[in-house]
Amino acid sequence: MHLKNWSVIYPDRRTALAPAYDFVATIAYIPMNERP
């Protein structure tokens, strides 16, 4: 996750940082013939 993009929300007319913005879920690719 990188922190150069920020997102704000306005709950109850107050500014707050959004819980998460612009994140990517990834998983390592391991070919079937190399798995334990």
Explain the overall architecture:
- This protein has 36 residues and is mostly loops.
- It has one domain (1-36).
- 0% of the residues lie in helices and 11% in strands.
- The chain has no helices and 2 strands.
- It has strands spanning 8-9, 16-17.
- Strands 1-2 form a two-stranded antiparallel ribbon.
- The model has no long low-confidence stretch (mean pLDDT 76).
Radius of gyration using CA atoms only:
18 Å
Our estimate of the beta-strand percent is 5-15%
H and E order = EE
Total of domains: 1
Q: Portion of residues in helices?
A: under 10%
Oligomer category:
single chain
Low-confidence stretches: none
Mean pLDDT: 76
* Separation, N- and C-terminal Cα atoms: 29 Å
Computed structural class? little secondary structure
Number of strands: 2
Keywords:
36 residues, little secondary structure, two-stranded antiparallel sheet, 0% helix
